[in-house]
Design goal:
The protein is mainly α. The protein has seven helices and no strands.
Length: 261
């Protein structure tokens, strides 16, 4: 990080640096976030939020799924709004807090929606193939997600007040992200177990009506979303492993590719 001119504060609630006064290399990220990229993500999540709300109002079912998707999109919108603030002023403490907290825990809402979706899929395909009562899949994993969310929020808030220099705070954030990865992996294991048991059951008693093409496509994209969230979480773990001084946190291309996309 390049030193700022004397008498100027680059980070924190008392930051008084601007691009006109301090080099961008003095900021936490050491770069000016892409305006086009962050506006694109903000618009994308805004559209996704509207679509999910419209579908929820139209079908008037699965409101918990809609609520999870809504708040996940809201968190992403706030986060990318914070990054747009950092484009205007890379030293904006408010912008930094918005993006580091909101973008970090937003996927937790999406994984909760995925847990609900698996429950619905099990009911559709046949709960007799599940190893547990279908409701247990989200009764167990959603509280686990909330716990990891709390750890990420606490760690993010604490480390943000120290510019990533507080090792305890960074460790708390990493613990939250690591637990999220662990819970998702366990969830994937249970999902695979259900698929195996379902296919075995089909050999004995086939469905009267084959699965529709749209359902298969939906299932493929659902599986892809889980893989992408796992990749994203692994990236954030590696990114935060060195606090705010590691090389990954200063690489916007990786952020856009592995977090945004």
């Amino acid at each position: 990080m390049t030193d700022a001119p004397s008498n100027y504060v680059v980070y924190g609630p008392d930051a008084n640096c601007t691009l006109a006064l301090c080099p961008v290399e003095s900021s936490v990220y050491q770069y000016r976030p892409s305006l086009a990229g962050n506006v694109s993500f903000l618009v994308f999540f805004g559209v996704a939020m509207i679509i999910h709300l419209a579908m929820g109002l139209k079908w008037r079912r699965n409101f918990f799924f809609v609520i999870c998707m809504f708040w996940g999109c809201v968190a992403e919108i706030l986060g990318y709004g914070g990054r747009i603030m950092l484009w205007q002023n890379p030293f904006s403490f408010t912008g930094f807090l918005l993006q580091i907290i909101c973008i970090t825990f937003a996927p937790t809402f999406f994984t909760a929606a995925i847990y609900i979706t698996l429950y619905k899929i099990i009911l559709y395909l046949g709960p007799q193939h599940a190893r547990f009562r279908p409701r247990l899949y989200y009764w167990i994993f959603i509280p686990c997600d909330i716990f990891s969310l709390v750890l990420q929020a606490i760690g993010g808030a604490l480390s943000s007040t120290s510019s990533g220099g507080n090792k305890t705070a960074v460790d708390v954030s990493l613990a939250g992200l690591s637990l999220q990865v662990f819970f998702i992996c366990v969830f994937v294991g249970f999902a695979i177990d259900f698929i195996i048991r379902y296919r075995k059951g089909q050999r004995v008693t086939p469905r009267l009506k084959p699965l529709s093409r749209s359902f298969k496509i939906f299932s493929y994209f659902l599986s892809l979303s889980i893989v992408l969230i796992l990749i994203r979480c692994c990236y954030r773990i590696d990114e935060l492993s060195d606090g705010y001084n590691g090389p990954l946190i200063h690489d916007e291309g990786l952020f856009i590719g592995l977090e945004g996309v």
